[in-house]
Specification:
This protein is mostly helical and 90 residues long. The chain contains six helices and no strands.
Length: 90
């Protein structure tokens, strides 16, 4: 999602549970700055962990693999292939 569209949809994203109130505050505070991407990456990493942690717990993903995927997300990667790897393991 592009930054402008994300900013337009913040309230809806909070309402439907996609982001927290705190994350919305962080996005508003960093809008138009390089830090905005870091906040988005953190949100994406939280979403990815909802998939990787159960996969590690049930043994379908190693801790090292999960940490590697999360590192890529935190680094700003958000490719379809990465999302598939994160979701496809559990």
């Amino acid at each position: 999602m592009d930054p402008q569209r994300m900013m337009e949809r913040l309230d809806a994203m909070v309402s439907n549970g996609r982001i927290t109130d705190e994350e919305a505050v962080q996005l508003r505070a960093t809008e138009g700055t390089p830090a905005f991407g870091d906040v988005v990456a953190g949100i994406r990493a939280r979403h990815a962990q909802a998939h990787t942690e159960p996969a590690v717990a049930d043994g379908t993903m190693s801790r090292e693999e999960a940490d590697g995927l999360l590192e890529r997300v935190l680094g700003g990667e958000h490719s379809a292939e990465l999302r598939k790897q994160v979701r496809g393991k559990h």
